[in-house]
Amino acid sequence: RYFLTGVVRHDGSSRLAEGNKWQTFPALSASWRLSNEAFMQDRPLGISTLALRAGWGMQGNQAVRPYGTQLLLKADPGARYPFGTTLTTGLVATQVANPDLTWETSEQVNLGIDYGFANDRFTGIIDFYQKTTNDLLLEVSVPQPAVVATRLENVGSLRNRGVEISFDARMIEGTDRNLTAGIVANFERGEVISLGGRQFIGTGDVNGQGQSGRLSQRIMLGEPIGTFWGPRFLRVNPEGKQVFACSSDRPECVNGETTSPAGDDDEILGNANPDFTFGLTSNGRWGNFDASWLWRAEFGRDVFNNTALVYSTKTNVLQDRNFLESALGDPDAVGEPAIYSSRWIEDGSFVRLQNITLGYTFANRAISRFARSARVFVSGDNLLLFSGYDGYDPEVFVRRGLASRGIDYVTYPRARTFTTGFQFEF
């Protein structure tokens, strides 16, 4: 009825500096199986399994590139000096030393319920969790003048809270046919709770002509990592110029609108984290045939379509550069530059048919008297995608690790793949 588990890890990493290589990570969990108690023997409400769980633990992340704590030099053709009659190539710094880099640590608390009904024909879990990450490994600006612009440091703390719910059902049970289905959903909210005295850290480079130095995201106190930051786009005026919201008292801001946004006009434009995720999986068998399928979905996430910002403007024609067909229908005047704003932040919600697998198992000795069983199957991945996103795929990669996410710039589209094969047991 009662379970108690504990573990202590003492991990080391050669990527960290002396004095910071080793860290201890304990964990403890306990559960109480209420369904085995005497007061539950009458099985009220048809409950067959009921258990309460609680857990606490710490884990570490040492995602530091090799030699990330040390001063690194490289030969630079721009640092050539004559010594007598010899031209010597000098060395320049590509990374400043940071001997204080240490483990990024996460502390997580879980409270959960395991349940089952009708002799566990229907089962599931409900998990509540809070994860606090300290000493975040982030790339931050180095005070200038310096030999490099940024370096990796342990900066601040992040907190994530959420609930995960799953439900599994044995829908059909028989000797020659069965069908099971499972649903899992996750709701999570995150916020930065400390930045080591900083108000924000800019991240998420914007690519394209005229975008040098422009960043699309800010890591801000009280907001999740992946928060988009910039001017809010309103419309294109009759002269073909983009109009943005503004709140400053400068002459260019008239009635809360401007065609030349400044830094004071920037605001939160959205974030790359989904409001909730959803998955549906099923497995079935009918005689010798079997099938399985998986659907995945994310809702409420935003994506910065950097590809559209660069290639969806007619201005490219003035420089003999390629542009997308959609640029022909936009109201922008030829010569109007692309400006990063909420115009390029799109809803990245999607529903994806991740996989379908179909198989057939041959009767014993149908192929060979030496084989215990034989099965042929065909499987397809990334078969269908339903999304309002204008790019190839809203599920874009995370750039530069933890610091930025949800940025799509000429990302190679995810392939649709098909696999077939045979399985034998002897």
Word description of this protein:
The protein is mostly beta strands. It has one helix at 306-311, and strands spanning 2-12, 22-33, 47-61, 72-83, 86-95, 104-117, 122-134, 137-141, 150-154, 157-173, 177-194, 200-205, 215-220, 227-230, 233-236, 242-245, 257-258, 267-271, 276-286, 289-299, 302-305, 345-347, 350-362, 373-387, 398-399, 404-405, 407-408, 417-425. A twelve-stranded antiparallel β-sheet has the order 1-2-3-6-7-10-11-19-20-23-24-28, with no helix packed on it. It is globular and about 85 Å long. 18% of the residues are buried.
Characterize this entry briefly.
The protein is mainly beta and 426 residues long. The chain has one helix and 28 strands. The chain has a twelve-stranded antiparallel β-sheet, with no helix packed on it. A four-stranded antiparallel β-sheet has the order 12-13-14-18, with no helix packed on it. Strands 15-16-17 form a three-stranded antiparallel β-sheet, with no helix packed on it.
